[in-house]
Amino acid sequence: MARNLGEAAKKFLLLGQCVPTVKQNAAKIRVKRLELDENLLMYFRKDEFYYCHDPQKMCKTGDIVLIQALPQKLTKLITHEVKEVVYDFGDITDPVSGKKVAKDRYREDIDREAELYGKLKSTFDYNRAPSRGWQDGKKDFTSKPTYTKFHVFDKNDPYAI
């Protein structure tokens, strides 16, 4: 059954989340799957990681993306390509209605309620907020190279995981 799943993954689009990687011109995508344990007859989550060709650097860490298998492997690791960024990280959209969401409520409902009760100065305005990435290099370090820290040194490196 696992062989059929691997063959199907080559033909179809997969939905996954971008995670940090050290590779240049590639994105590491985590695809969540449910695998049946035949003894317990229960499904358990299994994560699979794919390295995807992303020369335009479309996706950042945390984005939900669509990936598709390449007809021929680029390298030993890079087997897929990023087709499209479906949802940007932090900009949550309800998939059923297509409306933007803030926490557990629609943004337009929050705006309508603020208009009814008199808009407060402390209310955050999503329409005037800058897009993600404007703090790149200041507070947003998702574009910096990351690595796993195996040793503890005196100097603290902010890019280590």
UniProtKB/TrEMBL annotation:
Belongs to the universal ribosomal protein uS17 family. One of its GO terms (biological process) is mitochondrial translation. InterPro entries: NA-bd_OB-fold, Ribosomal_uS17, Ribosomal_uS17m_metazoa. The keyword Membrane does not apply. Keywords: Ribonucleoprotein, Ribosomal protein. GO terms for cellular component: mitochondrial small ribosomal subunit. SUPFAM superfamilies: Nucleic acid-binding proteins. This is Mitochondrial ribosomal protein S17. One of its GO terms (molecular function) is structural constituent of ribosome. The keyword Ribonucleoprotein applies. PANTHER family: 28S RIBOSOMAL PROTEIN S17, MITOCHONDRIAL, SMALL RIBOSOMAL SUBUNIT PROTEIN US17M. It holds the Pfam family Ribosomal_S17.
